[in-house]
Specification:
The structure holds two protein chains of two kinds.
Chain A: E1 5-10, E2 13-18, H1 23-29, E3 53-58, E4 64-67, E5 77-80, H2 84-100, H3 105-113, H4 133-141, E6 148-150, E7 157-159, H5 174-178
Parallel strand pairs in A: 1-5
Antiparallel strand pairs in A: 1-2, 3-4, 3-5, 6-7
Helix pairs in contact in A: 2-3
Chain B: H1 7-21, E1 26-31, H2 34-38, H3 41-54, E2 61-66, E3 78-81, E4 85-87, H4 95-105, E5 114-115, E6 122-123, H5 140-145, H6 151-156, H7 161-169, H8 172-182, H9 194-203, E7 210-215, H10 224-231, H11 233-247, E8 251-256, H12 261-276, E9 292-297, H13 307-315, E10 338-342, H14 343-355, H15 357-361, E11 371-378, E12 384-389, H16 394-401, E13 411-416, E14 422-425, H17 435-440, E15 449-454, H18 459-473, H19 479-496, H20 502-518, H21 522-527, H22 529-537, H23 539-547, E16 562-564, H24 573-577, E17 583-584, E18 592-593, H25 603-607, E19 613-615
Parallel strand pairs in B: 1-2, 7-8, 7-10, 8-9, 11-15
Antiparallel strand pairs in B: 1-3, 3-4, 5-6, 11-12, 13-14, 13-15, 16-19, 17-18
Helix pairs in contact in B: 7-11, 7-14, 8-9, 8-11, 10-11, 10-12, 11-14, 18-19, 19-20, 20-22
The chains are: A alpha+beta, B alpha/beta.
Chain lengths: ~220, ~625
């Protein structure tokens, strides 16, 4: 069967891409790099981190900004992934991210990739970056439905229902498999505003599990 | 209540109701809106009932509890028809006098009439009051006439006649053409053409479609939708019926926020009555058109006013927005084509069908048609709901309707559009109020909040208030809104505490821009408007906080100091009220504030009759 395609332009390159794919998928197929954070292949795009923002215009419309991971391709779409506005926005997002969770490797990686040298916000030390990967992994791939967001705004966090492990959780550890917060974290940042860049230091495993008594490979793990 | 099976039945019912109403010589209507209820209008109504009964007037005089006529500041409001005497600030103690003088003898109670502060003249009828005179009350005027809990009242003023016209004289395409020709735009804030939205929804294939009425009005200081839903729920239902017929939907939802109990109650009663009368349900008026309406109560989240979050909430999921590439008219509620409109938009629909698109489009400006209800609040003399034609200037609203400044301090700005809008300085008050010109100056129409600010308002403090409001109301799904607003709040906190520097101002501006550009939904996209517009028009105030560590409006407590001037008569009132005993001085001599003990609560300034307490 012949696959249906549409023609779009990404960064000046005319591409024939599969209908129904997202800008991110189309770009990756042709080797155009669009950075992501909360995206993972085979999980539903979430559009929460906004790192993959691109400028889009259609039929000569005024360019608007949207996320590449959620935007479906259409005939004649004009996409810019590297405009000064986009680069600036991503850098600011990376700064917000790393200021909130400086000890998460992914946050440091993203900051390093965008050439961020100084953080202008007071540093916090959150372990969870609220990317929602664990929730989607649990729900979509493992059919677990054991995790979800609770709270709103700055009080948002990830939790099991009523803070206890439900029967639907089979301790499959899918959640910590995908959690960027559990990748060996960075120990470099000591002073507020500092970025270290020396991310891979395998000295100790921190007691870092978000969920207390289940899941990750820290010493509280019941497995 | 009879069950209506055809258009002729409705006509007959209307005639019966009018005949019955004709037996009353007089109608006394008491406002029963939330504003007047706070002033205890229930007691006024009870006393009126008792007093009328005592004089044996119950047969001659009808007592009616109506919706909100808009002049909330002067509540409780009582109007007597047919003489059209408008009494304001009525207390239960005034009632015997009203009954004996006005109702029995036809004379006015002078002290309850509205007094024009300019020429000290008493004004009898509401339409003569400066607050009402420049208004064009197409929607709100019906609130004055009907009891929202009685469908008969709505029928009597010609209610559901537009539905009859739509069902029997027009076809769905004709209705959509009519709405398109009228130029009606969504009153929820974004101003999307309503007719276009309906057309797109109609064009979608599939038999199941939905209509939704958005009554999740959360902007601080805005209550237009509440007044309409409380005061005239049937007009909203009629609008939804016509809309549903046009797009081919058979099920509707009204999403009412949890904080509007009276709106919820009245809407529920209206639905029950319409159902019983056969105006909702199967085979409406014998036309073969079926339509059901359900009410969904919000859970107290501001973000649920956003269409996709609202739909998620109705579906029973967490109220979080999603990407809007696929619009709700294509995939909305339960992935079916859905038309979502604001309360005011729906309420406008019967009017347009009744009087025609040409009439409607003759009101307003080129691109914004019809009237818009604003809730005028803040530092003006007359506050309340005002309905004005589009294109009226801000000056007319603030100075003519609002009556201008409240207490000697000059008005410096008006905040429109709630937390998503911006502050417009007094120098731009000649601006015509419509969707496009407000967006041009960095604010927006929003749902219609209008907060007037005078020189006693600190713009940095206002920006801080709105940022903190949104920070709390952000759902937290996307990074720029969740983290960005938090950081913006922190920067503004630092500035108002006197710890800001030039860099933080630049960072604030940069951050606000990125939050606006990259956020997921309307909440985040517009969240930076209050900050950016304040920076655009009131930068010197920010700079005074940073450079001179001074709050020009005297609001930000860490930056102000209280002192006592030579006007002090030494009465000692301030020393008595000071909670920290920070004021000392001998009797009849000038007092002094001990700065180290002063908690800057402002009590001394409030009690001082000589205005000798100075804030610097």
């Amino acid at each position: 069967m012949k696959r249906e395609t549409v023609n779009i332009t990404i960064d000046g390159r005319l591409l024939e891409v599969e209908k129904g794919s997202t800008i991110l998928q189309a770009g990756r197929e042709f080797g155009i790099h669009i950075p992501t954070m909360c995206f993972m292949e085979h999980l539903t795009p979430y559009g929460g981190c906004r790192i993959c923002v691109v400028e889009i215009s259609q039929n000569g419309s005024k360019p608007f900004i949207d996320t590449a991971c959620t935007y479906e391709v259409r005939e004649g779409l004009l996409v810019q992934t590297q405009t000064p506005k986009i680069i600036h926005a991503r850098k600011m997002l990376a700064e917000l991210l790393v200021a909130s969770a400086p000890n998460v490797k992914l946050a440091q990686d993203i900051a390093a990739r965008f050439g961020l040298l100084k953080v202008r916000f007071p540093m916090e030390d959150n372990r969870c970056i609220l990317c929602g990967l664990c929730i989607r992994m649990c729900y979509e791939q493992m059919d677990g439905r054991a995790l979800g967001f609770v709270g709103r705004g700055t009080g948002r966090k990830i939790s099991m229902p009523f803070n206890g492990r439900p029967e639907t959780c089979r301790l499959c550890r899918g959640c910590d498999f995908v959690c960027p917060g559990l990748i060996v974290p960075c120990h470099g940042v000591k002073d507020p505003g500092e970025l270290c860049g020396k991310c891979v230091r395998l000295e100790e495993m921190p007691n870092c599990c978000e969920f207390g008594t289940f899941g990750c490979f820290c010493d509280q793990n019941p497995l | 209540m009879r069950r209506i099976k055809s258009a002729k039945d409705l006509e007959q019912w209307k005639a019966t109701i009018l005949k019955k109403q004709g037996t009353h010589e007089m109608v006394v209507s008491v406002c029963g809106g939330t504003g007047c209820q706070a002033y205890d209008c229930q007691k006024v109504k009870m006393t009126l009932q008792k007093e009328l009964g005592r004089h044996g007037l119950t047969k001659r005089v009808a007592l009616k509890v109506t919706g909100c006529p808009g002049f909330c500041e002067r509540g409780p409001l009582v109007t007597i028809y047919p003489q059209n005497i408008f009494y304001q600030k009525v207390t239960p103690e005034d009632v015997p006098e009203i009954v004996s003088k006005t109702i029995q003898n036809g004379t006015k109670v002078e002290r309850l009439l509205f007094e024009d502060s300019r020429n000290k003249q008493k004004i009898t009828s509401a339409s003569e009051i400066p607050f009402y005179r420049p208004q064009m009350r197409l929607l709100l005027s019906r609130n004055d006439l009907i009891d929202p809990n009685r469908i008969e009242d709505y029928i009597a003023i010609g209610g559901y006649q537009s539905l009859v016209k739509a069902l029997f004289q027009m076809d769905p395409d004709g209705i959509i053409e009519e709405i398109k020709a009228s130029g009606l735009r969504g009153r929820g804030g974004a101003g999307y053409p309503t007719g276009k939205k309906w057309e797109e929804c109609k064009r979608e294939s599939g038999t199941t479609k939905y209509v939704i009425c958005n009554c999740d009005e959360g902007d601080p200081g805005a209550f237009m939708d509440r007044a309409l839903m409380e005061g005239n729920p049937h007009s909203v239902l009629e609008g939804m019926l016509i809309g549903a017929y046009a797009i081919g939907a058979d099920h509707g939802f009204i999403y009412i926020r949890h904080e509007y109990p009276l709106a919820y109650k009245n809407a529920e009663i209206a639905i029950q009555q319409a159902k019983r009368a056969g105006l909702l349900g199967q085979n409406i008026l014998g036309s073969g058109f079926n339509f059901e309406v359900e009410i969904t109560k919000g859970g107290g989240a501001f973000v649920c006013g956003e269409s996709t979050a609202l739909i998620a909430s109705i579906e029973g999921r967490v109220g979080e927005p999603r990407s809007k590439q696929i619009r709700t008219v294509k995939q909305g509620l339960w992935r079916k084509p859905t038309t979502l409109n604001n309360v005011e938009t729906w309420a406008n629909v019967p009017l347009i069908i009744e009087k025609g698109s040409q009439w409607f489009s003759s009101i307003g400006t080129e691109k914004s048609k019809g009237t818009k209800i604003f809730s005028l609040v803040g530092k003006v003399k007359n506050t309340g709901l005002v309905e004005v034609p589009m294109g009226i200037t801000l000056k007319e609203i603030i100075y003519d309707i609002g009556g201008g400044q409240q207490d000697g301090r000059k008005i410096k700005a008006v905040q429109t559009g709630g937390p998503s809008g911006g502050c417009i300085p007094a120098s731009l008050f000649d601006l015509p109020v419509d969707f496009d010109s407000l967006t041009e100056v960095g604010s927006m129409m929003g749902s219609g909040g209008m907060i007037v600010m005078d020189e006693g308002t600190c713009m940095v403090d206002v920006a801080k208030y709105f940022v903190h409001f949104l920070e709390e109301e952000s759902c937290g799904k996307c990074l720029p809104c969740r983290e960005g607003l938090k950081r913006m709040g922190q920067i503004l906190d630092r500035i108002t505490e006197g710890n800001g520097n030039e860099e933080s101002l630049l960072l604030l501006e940069e951050l606000a821009q990125v939050v606006g550009d990259t956020s997921l939904c309307g909440l985040g996209k517009t969240a930076s408007n209050p900050v950016l517009s304040a920076l655009r028009y009131f930068r010197p105030e920010f700079e005074a906080h940073i450079r001179q560590k001074r709050c020009p409006a005297g609001v930000c407590t860490p930056l102000i100091q209280y002192s006592i001037s030579e006007d002090c008569t030494g009465c000692g009132a301030c020393a008595k009220i000071c909670p920290t005993q920070a004021i000392e001085g001998e009797k009849k001599k000038i007092h002094r504030i001990l700065v180290e003990f002063c908690s800057k609560c402002g009590s001394c300034k409030e009690v001082c009759k000589e205005e000798a307490v100075i804030v610097q």
